[in-house]
Specification:
Layout: H1 3-45, H2 55-100, E1 106-108, H3 114-118, E2 125-126, E3 134-138, E4 144-148, E5 151-153, H4 159-174, H5 191-196
Parallel strand pairs: 1-5
Antiparallel strand pairs: 2-3, 3-4
Helix pairs in contact: 2-4
Length: 199
């Protein structure tokens, strides 16, 4: 073996060491790049000690937002249900009025006035206690004529009783139906009082 062989072996060893060092350098460069990326992710993604996030504050704000949203939705739901119930009530009320009859006749008998009481006049109207829709008129020959109405208001009936019977009709008018209420009778029989009540 000559000098050339030794130097060639040395060159080979030196070349292998250079290759190993080169691969280690490449690995270290790769690790350095990876380290810098991880470091930048850590510093950019999470707040540092100068910015402290209070988790209780975050959950408190989230709770308030959810509570506000719940209240808004429940209020909207209540309004929607109320509207549906009102529409259903109106429909049923108008259906009841149609079933009772679109034309109804009420009779209101007024009490004797002061002049009639002073003249000792007697009432010619007789009521059966069990029925609210019938009355009898006592004729001069003591015979009785019976009349039937949808409702009879006795002399003791007040304006509230009249309103209780007519309020569904008024409600139907407010719902858009055509309605007519009028009082008919002789002068002094109480038409204006029935329609208007006490002055």
């Amino acid at each position: 073996m000559g000098e050339n062989d030794v130097s060639q072996d040395q060159r080979l060893l030196v070349s292998q060491e250079i290759d190993e060092l080169s691969s280690k350098t490449q690995t270290l460069k790769g690790n350095s790049i990876l380290y810098n990326e991880v470091k930048s992710i850590n510093t950019n993604s999470f707040p540092g000690p100068e910015v402290q996030v209070n988790p209780l504050l975050f959950f408190g704000i989230e709770y308030e937002n959810l509570k506000k949203k719940y209240l808004e939705e429940s209020t909207l739901m209540k309004k929607r249900v109320h509207l549906e119930e009102c529409l259903e009530w109106k429909r049923l009320c108008n259906e009841v009025i149609e079933l009772k009859g679109n034309i109804r006749v009420f009779c209101r008998c007024r009490p004797l006035n002061q002049d009639e009481i002073a003249n000792e006049s007697a009432s010619i109207v007789d009521f059966e206690s069990s029925r609210d829709n019938e009355l009898q008129i006592i004729c001069s020959d003591s015979s009785k004529k019976q009349f039937k109405f949808d409702h009879v208001f006795r002399p003791g009936s007040d304006q509230e009783a009249v309103f209780a019977q007519t309020s569904p009709i008024v409600t139907s008018m407010l719902d858009g139906y055509n309605v007519c209420i009028f009082a008919y009778g002789q002068t002094g029989t109480g038409k204006t009082f029935t329609m208007e009540g006490d002055p």
